[in-house]
## 1
Amino acid sequence: ALAIVSGGSLVFGMIEHIQRLHIDRKPLEATECGRRIAYQSSTHTFAVMTCRQPEPDVDDDLDMNGAEEDDFFKETSHLKVIAAADFRTIECFDLEKYEVGTALLNFKDSIYIIGSGFAVPGEVDAKKGKIRGFRVVDGRGVGQLTEIVVPGAVYALAEFKGDLIALVANEVRRYSVTFNSPDSMSLVLQDSIAGHIQPLKVSVAGDSIVIADMMRSISVVKGFSKGRLGQVAREHACRWMASVEALSQNEFYGCDMHGNLFSSTLPVEESGSTQNGLTEDQSMSTLEASQGQEAAASSQNAPTSPAQEDPPRIPSTLDITGEFHLGDNVNSFRQGSLVRKLDEDANQVVIPKMVFGTCNGSLGVIARTSAQLGSVIEALQDGMRKVVSGVGGFDHAEYRMFRNEM
């Protein structure tokens, strides 16, 4: 199943066995816009972060030329918990004045954790943010478990070995999570890493935490003893990142603001054994690019190695294994497929690994193929280019060529 939050509604879709798409819609309010969405299977609920910007009251006798913008356009943010069965709103939690919801996480499939930042007029960057935890109670209500104040906006949240990873301002923070009672939990800061321009997205797989920075491409952080964090590898190129996803603890996919997809892997000295990662012959593969590669094991059930004592003093350099110009910015990657699971089928030659959604409303698939099939498709693509003219006279090879204008 697929859940998409768009400008004015929630869209729920499911593809049946004969590949027909069934869609249900949950309209939002007239001036409401969806920002984040998460699903919790244990409670069969969706959590949706929305923002609402009411129109000014034209009946008020106010001087629009002399009033400040905030007096007329007061954007409010909300957390809505919606039942998956009938799409009824279980509860709507209103955030504070100037508070903007920026991150949402389904933590351990039992707690919704949200992050926010305060967009105060006159401040260029948010000086304060909050992290809150909520629990759905018997499908009839929502109870708040915790609330802490952080020094900046919370751009992304992720779960890492029972702890919480939060991107706050220019830091990567690790919080320990303790449940004091069924209706109370506490977050304690264990460690943080600074030095980013502005970390925007985070993804976790096994021992690896991959961070997408607004200007400094991606970096890989790992956990060490006593709850510490350490950067083990990064890419030194300048990329304005839009999204990132860790397919395994050694393999990462990203998209930058120029519409480029790329894949990278940890160097051998950092990845350790290649049993659960990539081999040297593996590279990025998409259905459209048709770049062949051998199937690699997923890291969902991969054993994690014990924490090392100290992080490395100098991070290694990530190996770039594939680059492809998509022509659109990816908002989000998600592991999985829109059709039934195909990994168990030994005869399946194309195995979808991830889906992604773009700013222009497109859905894409990143899949693995065998090296043999990849070579055949690539040869077919080269042959088609010789007899089929590109739309608008654009050469296909030139258009799909990776380009970075930074």
Note: The helical segments are 268-271, 371-387, 396-399.
## 2
Amino acid sequence: MASAASTERFFRLRPMDFFHRPVNMVMQNENGPCPLLAIANALLLRGDIKIHMDYAHITQEKLLALVGEFILEKNPPYRDETMRPHQERNIADVITLLPQLTEGIDVNVRFKGIDDFEVQPEILVFDLVDVPLVHGWLLDPGDKAEDVVAPLSYNQLVERVIRQSELLHNEKMEKERCEKEEKQEEEEETQEEEEKNQMEEEKCQEEKEEGQIEEEKCQKEKGNRPSTEERERILREGSMVEDWLRRTASQLTVHGLMELHRLLDEQQLAVLFRNNHFSTLFKYKGDLFVLVTDLGYLAEPKVLWEKLNQIDGDSSFCTSDFSVYHPSLDTPRPLYPPRLQPDPSLPTFTPRTVKQALCSAQEVGDESLALQLHREEVAAQEARLARLAREAREAQEARTKIEEQRERPIPGPRPQPKRGPRPNAPHFNNPSDRYRAQGAQLAELDRERQARRSHPQPPPNDGNPVDSQRVNQTFLDEQQRMLTHYNRAQQEQQQQP
């Protein structure tokens, strides 16, 4: 029991005031994607679920239970019996997938609308809790990459970049191989010129054979190469996609920010997906605010919201009434409020002054936050590119093996010898006929033995009498055994009625 309790995951809670209503907000312990916390905080702010204000932390299982119970209460069974099995299956799938929300989900973004995502089972949970999942990574109207990027998703864009890099890599490798072969051919020609004249005919024959092989290889490689038009299209689309991904590395564009302001309703809660991170988003008086859940701000109770009005990270922190938070020179305050006691199982933090916190938040915060987001995004993109490149290489190797197996001749079945009756083999209808035939053969063998005794032959085995006697005795014993077997068979046949 002690080991299970030690491995149990906890989330720190932070009290806040939301429109004169106390709310215990869930903080994020690790710097990583956690859509469960974004959904839970949206439900807490909306008043759909509640956590007692005296709690300092909450376990992951308890938080999952609260969200799961709300899903069941929010979605009662349909009255239409034809739609009820579909609803029950969706709810069962979402309840099963809830633990995956604690680690993050793979979301494939499309760039036409703020709620345009590829349909996946994990996204169904946002529909069941009635919290929309949105993003601001939209294509700006009139962008030069609009024709290429607009109809594709993020994964498809990454495939275009990988295909371009693979094409350039293959061309580079092919060029190096050709140069190496040309160099080898020059060396071989130099060596062949120094050989004797009597080897010229063989050398010419070898060159002809090698030329045929090289021609076959070139024809085969040309068949695998893309055409000139396709190559230009791959390089053009890959370069445009790569340039657009570099220009929108923050995954928030001006058009996307304007669409978020336009399409979200006043005082509406949503979950914002940006830089592979899920955050609770709220619209108030025409402005967008992101809930601050980083555990590093737990010592600053007034820093609760971050205003989302810039795409380059130049934003400001706000208090519970959505006013901009200004630093002040206050006395150092402890990390934990008087009513909360530090949990020894959770990590502790050194108390900081408000001045130190605000200096680090404003002087260094903008640049460090932008740099941190950029690093996280670059790392996530590199990991995704590496994974997709590895999968593409494995698929290419599998296709190559399949093509080689198809080109390899399939061995046919081994011819089996025809089995039929032996020529001149006697056929017997009953055992007595067979016994009579065997007796006749034994009598013939006996007559031959008497003839050999009356007319002795020279011993075999190079005149060795000992070996000849041993062979004759073995043969005589076999004849005697067969004669005994024949006599016994005759007696059994006579005894039968």
Note: The two ends are 88 Å apart (CA to CA).
## 3
Amino acid sequence: MADPAAKRRKVEPAGVNDVKPQTKYEYMTGYDGEKSSEAIKGAVPVMYNTPQVCPFGLYAEQLSGTAFTKPRDTNRRVWMYKIRPSAVHDEMVEVMDARMTQPVDVVCPRQRRWSPFPLQKDGSVTWIDGLQPYAGAGEPTMKAGVKIYLYSFNASCTQSAFQNADGDMLIVAEHGELDVVTELGRLQVRPGEIAVVPRGIKYWVNTVGGVCRGYVCEVFDGHFQIPDLGPIGANGLANSRDFLCPTAWYEDAKTDFKVYHKFGGKLFSYTTDRSVFDVVGWHGNYYPTKYDLARYCPVNAVRYDHLDPSIFTVLTCQTNDPGTAALDFVIFPPRYMVQQNTFRPPYYHKNCMSEFMGNITGAYEAKEKGFLPGGATLHSCMAGHGPDAGGFEKASKLDTMEPMKPSLKDLAFMFESTYIFTLSDYSSKNNVDKDYKKCWNTLPVNFKPPQ
């Protein structure tokens, strides 16, 4: 008898919110924990980290993501077995007027909405030149703060790499497929997926057949982690098993190679005569990951009230004040809304945190018009925000005895931070929706005091 599920399994995903098959590269599963991978069997030594002579004439090099003396449960490092050590290269020189190093120093307390970041259709722009700062706070030399970029690029490069000494980078793909090449292996990242590249790991992002656009958040403080679940239990939200990390892959190529190195908020570069993607094997607990947001398991109120958006946190990077995030990556995934006698959209709010939002596909539940894929909003510390007038009227008349089915066409997200964001000169002047504030101006006064 034919398997009735077999035909369904062969169907390609129809949209961003469908779970995507992972067919291009091989991966290991799990966000945390020790892993080991070899592109050539035997490249990782048994027992020894630094044997007198490494297998196949490789060099042993440790990359420390935390201090040596961090507690074991938070200590992060990876041992790499490389064709040549990272120390071998020409002198570093500063890259002047680099786009990604533009300062974010424009103070703006107003609610902001930006139209979609323009797709880079002209010329030949690669990853590093496609990163446009929008907002941020803090200081990378003090390892405290964040910086938010929107990116658009249309060209690949097989002889470049980027290393960020300032922080981890979280990449949110909105338009176009990415091929993320890292020292530890390769990641395929499509719209609706994210990638996290930790501080210090060399990588490059190439386009797969066209223009790419999306969002990046750089975190100076520490490292991203899956949030604790508390009384939710052992399962739910972003499950560790659904994060994928690369398997070892290397190039043994003698070629002119350029490495960009971000340090102290500035960009430097150096050249070398070999590919730096030369790790033949590795082991450790410090590595890039990718995650399909369609795999997120949301938890929500099932009787009444709209709960705080923190229940949709995918990843968090905490400050030294427990429970206060340098950056929470929050999504607004498809989900049933069943709360009775409840105003179901996000409530009106003033927040001690900064809320920078992006739209991956479709419409956002609190504002069905104006907030477009590839665009962004910023509601800064203590700036009032919430549903627009149309959204308020619609939700106030909704029959809440009926469940609301999820829309598989919609997916938005938020970078939420305790830091007070300032803007770049570019984002303060370009793509700004000057009528955004008007979306609340027609909210009526409904107050009727008792007679």
Note: The helical segments are 4-9, 389-396, 425-429.
## 4
Amino acid sequence: MDSPGEDRREQFAKQPKLARQSIAPAPAARFGRSATGQRGGISAAAVDKGTSLSDPMQRRAVDSPKDFLPGFGSSTQLYWCSAPQNVLVIKKYRDRQITQKFKEIVRYLVEEKGLKVYVESKALAEKDIQCDVQFAAVRTQLVSWCCEDEDCLAKMDDIDFVVCLGGDGTLLYVSSLFQKSVPPILAFHLGSLGFLTPLDLSQYKRIITDVIKGEATLTLRSRLDCVIHSGEGPASPAVNGRNHLEFERRISTPSPTSPKPEMHFPPLGGGNDVAQPQARFRRTPSIITNKTVTEQMLVLNEVVIDRGQSAYLSNLEMYCNGIPITDVQGDGLIVATPTGSTAYAAAAGASMVHPNVQAMVVTPICPHSLSFRPIMVPGGVKIEVKIPMNARGTGAVSCDGKNRQVLYRGDRVEISMSIFPLPCIDGVDHISDWFTSLSTCLHWNARAKQKQFDPEVEDEDATDGVETIPEE
């Protein structure tokens, strides 16, 4: 006899999925090695085991097909399939205050929680850590980790959760390291702005203990899947007898005997934070097939396509699900996630969007049109931006402010919502955290309150302008 969980799974499989997919792709249900999500008081694992649904709230959650697995719609309760054992600690570099807190947290994780702690080799090489005699015993128990080491690829799949010590840029760096499933992230506020880091460092013991027990909620921050296709268009027009970018792209079809082309990836940094080491092995490598170079990466904030070093007005063709939408003439275009709507997109005039909204924000940069306003499109669509063959100059594309590369005529960028979100531990809940960040970090709608009327004067003002009729 089939269990209730299997029956409901079969019912869910028979449901039409087109409507849901048009809104946004269903996110992956697994975060890292052993973490998953739990919504409506029952987890996906519990449903598989046929858990009794005696609670009315649980029945309502399971009766809705979209609540079988974690989604973007609301906070998700953290659920461990097995006890967490491995933790990766990422810190901002060249900051002594953060280094002291780093040593304190690492000591707590090793000595009191008995966890296996992975730390970047560059962090372990800092002078304040190497020369600290009192920290030497703990340092010998840490696992050195380097993003350029091929052996680290297998180690990253063993990470249960990540402790992020820094600002928003450090969190962007952590996102760039995980180009598929991401373990839960504890983002402590130690940076300049801290819009994306809601956790209070003074409460780190309580927060880490709650996370290990599974007594925490997650906000699934959607990420963009950006694919760059290099076409067969000619190089940029020459200026004064030479290319105005001083180099020319040459793509040739490789033969079976030709050596493997060398791949150069620009350094991945941490936003406004100090630049981080390159994370080459987490990027999908360039593939040359039929004279087309393809690169793929996951983006947390935004993809920016602009005019680059060209002095000409940017000319871009924009498509949505293959349908021509408009031509962009201006400085460029921003395609942002709800998380990125409070970054570059907000500066360009876009609305600020809650991270749980399933949408992408499309914002022009200085458009040469008074009617070209920012728009929001469903998260399930695919946006394509192309450099037309008749463009006067080149363009450029950058992801989260990094990985910048030149776009030539015929090149195109495909952007869609990824199924691998960034699960971040909530400070309070996803509503309180977001509005608190708006108020404290961006001073949203901050102004002096209007004074009330003086009660004694208010009675006199009420008769102003009212014509009185004298008594006879």
Note: Residues 439 and 447 are 11 Å apart (CA to CA).
